[in-house]
Amino acid sequence: AENAYITPGLLAHGSVYEFCRAGHLQPQIEKLKTLYAPRLKATLAALDEYLPEAEATRPDGGFFLSLTLPEGVTTMDVRTRATEVNLKLADGRGFFADGGGERFLRLPFCALNSQQLQTGVARLADVVRSAA
Description:
- The protein is 48% helix and 9% strand.
- With 132 residues, the protein is mainly alpha-helical.
- The chain has a single domain (36-131), classed as Aspartate Aminotransferase, domain 1 (Alpha-Beta Complex).
- The protein has a 3-stranded antiparallel sheet, covered by helices on one side.
- A hairpin with a 7-residue loop joins strand 1 and strand 2 (64-68).
- It starts with 9 loop residues before the first helix and ends with a helix.
- This is Aminotransferase class I/classII domain-containing protein.
- InterPro entries: PyrdxlP-dep_Trfase, PyrdxlP-dep_Trfase_small.
- GO terms for molecular function: 2-aminoadipate transaminase activity.
């Protein structure tokens, strides 16, 4: 799919158009902000507590945050060890068109609750330290 242009069908386009035209978009955005903001806050707090040596973005919204691993630790080192503790991480290099990303991780925070996020970040911190 990375080398092809894929677009939703006309039915999906029409459905989204009608949803927006009926004024449902902004209330849905507010609902999702209320749902996801505590999860983002929990992830950032866990990173501050367990992995302060990494550099995390502080986004105002979205579904992911970006994490730059400490010097000397690569995503490939971390990914290998992460699978052993049931963490699934993407290769950070795939997010950079012109090279880079050797120390980059994209962390999703929307699908998990605060306790799961804290546990995941604690596991990630252990993995990062073992890879250093």
